[in-house]
Amino acid sequence: MQLHTHTWGEGDRVALLIHGMMADHRTWRRVGPALAGRGYRVIAVDLRGHGVSGRGEYGPELFARDLVETLPAGADLAIGHSLGGLALSLAVDRLRPRRAVYSDPAWHLAAPVEGMGPEAFAQFKSAPKEQIRAMNPRWEEADVDIELETLALWDEGTAPSLTSLLGTDLLPAAPVVPSLVQLADPSFLVSPERAALLVERGFEVRSVAGAGHTIHRDDFDGFMASLEGWIQPLQGLPHSLPER
Q1: What is the pTM of this model?
Q2: CA 86-88-90 angle, 5° bins
Q3: The CATH number of the domain where 169 resides is what?
């Protein structure tokens, strides 16, 4: 499926942004322009069942296949959050970005998890603004408003594709390309034990202190700071790439 995309910037380097469950490209409203300011042409998708992309059957491999059919291979950077991190990890061998960043990726949903069933996800479809704000006290008001708009467009039929993975361990065996795993603090998706295992497997792992699951909305500055060494530096600033 060809996905809807949104682009920021006209830089020589290409960055790809892949959102999580219930969101769309607008979740990256600050990240996209920030990367464009660093010289990237930034392409963000709406996953199937999200935003204005098409509907259909849902599953991790289908989300991944859509990325391959929509996005250019060989980008300089790809960032996937939560479900987007899972989809990116399943597509990375075909997309082959120079670097991949997995932001609190949905690689392991412990079972049982209270409130993680498809019915609970679907209830968010009609969540009032006060509930969204209360659940995300660090978000800017614009992000609360965008969340309401993206929930209205989201097909809750996508939820079983994620909740069906409860108890399944999908941690990659090794990074296909140089890869950073960026974690919330604490992360309910990647435990300290699994974070240590990822390091053993060749991933770099960084936590953003005090940040919730949607790191780029909870602590935008912390999100960007944790990417240093993995993204194009601001013009005129010294820069060193991660050693591999």
Answers
A1: 0.93
A2: 75
A3: 3.40.50.1820
